[in-house]
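Annex B. Sample input.
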Amino acid sequence: MQETALMQRDASIIADTTAPTGVRSDWTREEIAALFDLPFTELVFRAAEVHRAHHRAGEIQLCTLLSIKTGGCPEDCGYCSQSVKADSGVEATKLMEVQAVLQSAAQARDAGSKRFCMGAAWRNPKERDMPAVIAMIKGVREMGLETCMTLGMLTPGQATQLAEAGLDYYNHNIDTSPERYGDVITTRTFADRLQTLDNVRNAGINVCSGGIVGMGETRADRVGFVHALASMEQHPESVPVNALVPVKGTVLGNMLADTPLAKIDDIEFVRTVAVARITMPLSMVRLSAGRESMSEATQSLCFMAGANSIFTGDKLLTAANAGDDADAAMMARLGLKPMEGEEPLREIKGRAMKAVGGCSGGCAA
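Annex B, continued. Sample output.
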């Protein structure tokens, strides 16, 4: 009888995800936990249904990520090789010249990328850096690429400057569950993260926010991580799901090097992708860091579960990545095609605006 009751509860949750819009911001942790608990094949099947209801199946958006300012970050994020607290061998550099960034963007475009992301290892940008950052945004947009930046915490005024420059997305990950957050980072709070996301949303920039799994967290933490994003009044338009790349010299890299059982297994990683897809049906779910060590079979399951974006190239900031040639070969074997043009972005944003009755906080349409 108990098993029947659980099946009825899970069926009710799944019914909500396959409704005409499937967009909810009232997800409970219990509901999200029930999704994680579904039989694996059932979960992936349901995620695939949600994916096909809102996105074109078989298309993957190709993105490129460039570190425009590497190392020397004063934050103590336990996973990050660019922290001054890490003994990872990463040397601090100055902000790249605008022309060098634009050259890299042109190369990414020519290699097939439609989205160019720029990351700086800052706690927050200084005002003296804003003119160069704005020039980068404008130059990359003129190439026809979708733009994204991750620069740390932003003030409302800085978010407005980026919006006026035409920035499409701002990335600021919540990293993990609110409860686990303090075990990973102590130099800023979970609330600080949310405040920057509010500043970005209020400025009219699309939100890119996800996190990292495989940091020794529990499934309850993964439930809390997804819940924090899926319960937002307006879901992030972009949700990167990263698998921890343990780097020697970082707190987590050193810790997990001796405790391999703490690392997340492939099936649990795919479950996380699938639950993110179901709970945030309109978002781009980005298969991000950690792909370099994933088998093609695992990546294929992620695509089946609703991931529809990858980062290409040989490097993600300071971590190794699969590379353009390997990705092209994999996509050819799987029959996947690069996403073309900006139409999907406009469609997704339009549906999201309609679903929530407009953009809260003064966002531009």
